[in-house]
Design goal:
heterotrimer, A mainly alpha (about 290), B alpha/beta (about 425), C alpha/beta (about 280), A: two-stranded antiparallel sheet, C: about 280 residues, alpha/beta, 11 helices
């Protein structure tokens, strides 16, 4: 029982991080149709800048947090500018070029992180240290917070999408960017807002996860992979899709650890990718995607 | 950090100063000086070239940093003493960037274009496995230092030797100390879910069996996992309980696995196996966990806490002092490995000259009882590319962020009555020795 | 963004009480009556092309006076839709100028043109399919988002005009019938409080009955004083509501005149009226 609970909780907290990254993919993709592979790099850079400010320069956590958010927001804007510098209403974004550009950004971010922070893993301060024992399973407080904050962010974004003009215009762009423009929506600004928002969410993921997973310069790619997986797994619903996708991915991965012996760990490595292939072939609309309303 | 020793190399590409315009000018100046008779006869002799091919990128980069410093320290010593028979050693250093194909290309370049006498490196097993046939092809000896030399194909071993023991295996042997000193009978294991983790798991299971211990279960999680509580909780739930835990994994994985044993309530002695044998990587191990964590290390790592009667203590202390003086940092096990990589090759050159084939022959057949800074002696043969008794290391625990001597592994083997032949046989089974 | 949305509950289904309809001439523009001479929209020698291709539109000049409905007729591929895309800023001009209310908007981004009051109803209605009817309508008023009270008023007017939409306000727009979607498209444009309306093929893909209904609404809008540029393939329907019309062929204006003149023209009858 304790064993099962442990796996359940580990899966949910890991899945929460996948979900956050996946939501970033979702926001940008719905608003601009770009699969921004640099999504994991915001987590990498945000996490590293945060731990540097907080530990090396001893800034109070809130100040470090504020600076990091400003910094990654700018990174988000820069990404958007690079990706759609030459985009006009009559010259839509080239998705191949955009995806390659963001891939290049992943490499640039990785190189920068290597030069600045070196090859060794580092970790930042935790919100709350220690653990709590629940029915024999051990919950790391930081993981609990990770999951809680993920859910809060997801709920906040859902509210934003339904109840605010920014959210409505993002959904309009998701449906039809040309129509959105004809309604008076500045499509480029919506895209920029989506990139900014997703960069901020990515950085939050990086900061939350670093006390547990540690960060090294290569972790951006790992985040990216799991985030894409969560996003594709979950399906079309902007927030609920990647949220469910991430949590399911985290759970499925870790449930394999219930296998006796070393098999579970090996399966945990392989199965997520296999799952992706299965999904893309048999259910490309994702777990939550239904028939499109057109 | 001192940079003087590394200016001619790495960081981070292969564009070393050899091809830079500056060096061309200086070699012109050198030629002019020679023509004017300003150079001594010794300087005028052609230098001996050695390649250094290490991996300065990725999770093992931190080892390369130490190995590089250790190797250059030995080379500097030789050059400062006037070289080998008047010939200076010139270093040509490249970075594999963790890419096996790139490492292969660079090794060929070292052999064919740079015409080095031997190569120090590569160090990472992942890199070495992708290019282990290249030294044989190019007939240049590779003084490697992979963590798992037993994975190198037999056919490639005549030109690639290891500068230390099969590290993972040696650390597995620490089980004997757990049984001998701590009376541990039932052990569980947490390893990484990859081929090396699996192999170490098999080695540990086999060793436990040889020692009359019971390996209850070997669990694995991916090396990228940071929440190892699922496995640890499972091991904690074993009935009857385990008395010892074997952990394999480098970097944060290893550290986190050890620390989380506390959380999971697995408060048993831990035998640690993996790359965290340098201070940077153990600094996050909590004091409570560190005290019950044991691992096998080279003697230079625990030189300060060795018994005064230790036969290697003087050599280990001298190496540590010299290294500290040169680099203003505490020497580590990889520092000594790097030093030994260079000194093995240099010893051969001092005896048979700079011909690559002769160097290789010497190292495999004539270099007997060669003392190394790790506090170990090596006697390589064509069927044994280590030439080291893997039990010839010491057991340490982690106290106050450093390694503290706990005992001699060999004594425990003696106390448990394990025969030498059993070890040789096991090494053969795990392909550390050729048949 | 920062402007707060009126909560959904605040927008009450006011359609229950018959609100004054904007279509019954109650909203005559004060300027429109007095200044037919100064057009609200003038298109001067406009040329346009898709990226790298030959011009699809060449040297087109056209004026839309206040309170006027001008129809642009032409066969498929004559350049009608290209003209509209250029006017709304979805396509760049190669040459020529677009003047709207005395301001040169030739290089203005599409959304800025909407802010100025030049609103388009796109061909095929272009529903934001997954959004509800009400969200579609609200987004039509995006440029007035900082005036939530005014927006709610306009929304009530639209619901009064199209009571069907009020019943379906929470349905996904993509699930509506073609006719209902046309209502949403028109209502959405009204939400932007247009100073001039560009209509792209309102009859496109609709049943004859619905086409007639649609044109009744268009006629109503015209009578209310809203200047309309109507792109239409169904020339007889278009000429029935238009004051003037031009005929495009291969990107050029080949005929122009009052609706009556063109309806009488043999050439136009043969080519576009299909009889």
């Amino acid at each position: 029982m304790a064993e099962f609970l442990q796996v359940l909780f580990t899966g949910l907290s890991q899945g929460g991080i996948y979900a956050l990254i996946g939501i970033g993919f979702s926001l940008v993709n719905m608003s601009t149709r770009v699969l921004n592979l640099a999504q994991g790099s915001y987590a990498l850079l945000g996490g590293f800048v945060f731990l540097t400010l907080a530990t090396r320069y001893g800034l109070p956590l809130w100040a470090a947090l504020a600076l990091v958010l400003v910094f990654v927001a700018m990174l988000g804007v820069v990404t958007e500018r690079i990706v759609s510098l030459r985009v006009r209403p009559w010259r839509p974004i080239s998705h191949d070029m955009a995806i390659l550009t963001t891939l290049a950004l992943v490499v640039v971010a990785e190189g920068a992180a290597f030069l600045i922070w070196g090859p060794d893993p580092q970790r930042g301060p935790a919100l709350q240290r220690g653990v709590v024992n629940v029915l024999g399973a051990i919950l790391i407080w930081q993981s609990v917070w990770m999951l809680v904050i993920t859910l809060v962010i997801a709920a906040g974004l859902q509210w934003l999408l339904i109840r605010t003009w920014l959210g409505r215009s993002m959904r309009a762009c998701a449906q039809n960017p040309l129509t959105a423009a004809l309604l008076g929506i500045d499509v480029r600004r919506v895209g920029m807002a989506a990139f900014t928002l997703s960069a901020v969410i990515g950085a939050l993921a990086g900061m939350l996860v670093s006390p547990i997973t540690w960060l090294d310069y290569q972790i951006g790619g790992e985040f990216m992979l799991k985030g894409v997986l969560a996003y594709l797994l979950g399906g079309e619903l902007a927030i609920a899709g990647p949220l469910v996708g991430g949590l399911v991915l985290g759970l499925v991965e870790n449930l394999f650890l219930l296998f006796p012996g070393a098999t579970g760990g090996l399966l945990k490595q392989v199965v997520p990718m296999a799952l992706l292939i299965v999904m893309l072939v048999w259910r490309p609309q994702g777990l939550l995607g239904g028939p499109r309303a057109r | 950090m001192s940079t003087t020793a590394r200016t001619d190399r790495i960081v981070p590409s292969d564009r070393t100063s050899r091809h830079a315009p500056g060096s061309r000018i200086s070699s012109l100046a050198f030629a002019a000086m020679a023509a004017l008779g300003l150079c001594s006869a010794a300087q005028a002799q052609e230098p001996i070239k050695l390649g250094i091919l290490l991996t300065h990128v990725g999770p093992t980069a931190i080892f390369a940093r130490y190995e590089d410093k250790g190797a250059r320290m030995r080379i500097d010593e030789v050059n400062r003493a006037g070289g080998i028979k008047g010939r200076r050693i010139e270093v040509i250093g490249y970075d594999t960037e963790g890419k096996p194909d790139r490492a292969g290309t660079l090794f060929r370049r070292l052999a064919q274009e740079d015409k080095v006498s031997a190569v120090i490196g590569p160090d990472s097993i992942y890199v070495l496995l992708g290019m282990s046939s290249v030294p044989t092809e190019s007939k240049v000896f590779s003084m490697a230092a992979p963590g798992n030399y037993e994975l190198v194909p037999m056919k490639d071993r005549q030109w690639v030797a290891s500068a230390w023991t099969a590290n993972g295996y040696t650390m597995v042997l620490g089980l004997a100390w757990l049984k001998d000193k701590l009376r541990v009978g039932r052990v569980g294991m947490l390893t990484t879910a990859d081929s090396i983790g699996e192999m170490i798991g098999r080695e540990a299971t086999d060793t436990a069996k040889m020692l009359g211990m019971e390996m209850v279960q070997v669990l694995a999680q991916p090396a990228s996992d940071r929440d190892l509580l699922p496995s640890l909780t499972k091991l904690n739930g074993m009935k009857p309980g385990i008395e010892g835990l074997v952990v394999f994994g480098s970097g944060p994985y290893g550290t986190i696995a050890m620390n989380q044993t506390d959380l999971a309530g697995v408060n048993v002695p831990i035998l640690y196996i993996g790359g965290n044998i340098i201070p940077e990587l153990i600094k996050d191990v909590t004091p409570e966990t560190g005290k019950r964590t044991f691992l096998t290390v080279a003697r230079n790592v625990v030189a300060d806490t060795l018994p005064a009667s230790d036969p290697y203590i003087a050599a280990a202390k001298k190496f540590n002092a010299d290294y500290q003086a040169k680099y203003k940092e505490t020497p580590t096990q990889p520092s000594a490995v790097g030093y030994d990589m260079a000194s093995t090759v240099i010893d051969a050159i001092e005896n048979v000259g700079s011909d690559p084939v002769k160097i290789r022959d010497y190292i495999y057949t004539k270099q007997k009882d060669f003392p190394m800074a790790q506090g170990i002696r090596t006697n390589r043969t064509p069927s044994d590319a280590y030439g080291i008794d893997p039990r010839d290391v010491v057991v340490a625990s982690i106290e106050g962020g450093r390694f503290v001597f706990k005992g001699y592994l060999k004594d425990s083997y003696k106390a448990l009555g394990i025969k030498d032949e059993a070890i040789t046989e096991q090494m053969r089974r795990f392909k550390m020795l050729a048949d | 963004m920062s402007a707060e949305t009126p909560s959904d509950d605040a927008i009450s289904p006011a359609c229950a009480s018959p609100a004054p309809s904007p279509t019954k001439g109650s909203r005559a523009s004060p300027v429109a009556a007095g200044a037919p001479a100064s057009p609200i929209l003038s298109i001067e020698r406009l040329s346009a092309a898709y990226d790298g291709s030959l011009p699809v539109l060449e040297d087109v000049s056209l004026e839309l006076a206040r309170g006027e409905l001008v129809a642009v007729l032409g066969a498929n591929g004559a350049g009608k839709s290209t003209l509209l895309r250029t006017l709304s800023g979805l396509l760049p001009c190669l040459a020529g100028r677009i003047i709207f209310e005395g301001v040169d908007i030739t290089r203005l981004a599409p959304d800025r043109r909407v802010v100025r009051g030049l609103v388009q109803v796109p061909e095929g209605r272009q529903m934001l399919a997954a959004l509800t009817v009400e969200e579609n309508l609200l987004l039509g008023g995006y440029v007035h988002r900082r005036d939530p009270a005014g927006l709610r008023r306009t929304l009530d007017e639209v619901f009064a005009l199209f009571p069907r939409l009020s019943e379906r306000r929470t349905q996904a727009a993509g699930l509506l019938s073609g006719g209902e979607q046309q209502m949403v498209a028109l209502g959405r444009a009204m939400m932007g409080r247009p100073r001039a309306l560009l209509l792209d093929e309102p009859s496109f893909g609709l049943a004859p009955k619905v086409v007639s209904d649609t044109f009744r609404v268009i006629d109503g809008l015209r009578s209310s004083g809203l200047p309309i540029l109507l792109i239409e393939q169904n020339a007889s329907k278009a000429l029935a509501v238009a004051d003037r019309a031009v005929v495009l062929r291969a990107g050029r204006v080949v005929a122009r005149g009052t609706a009556a003149e063109l309806a009488a023209s043999e050439e136009v009858r043969r080519s576009y009226l299909g009889d």
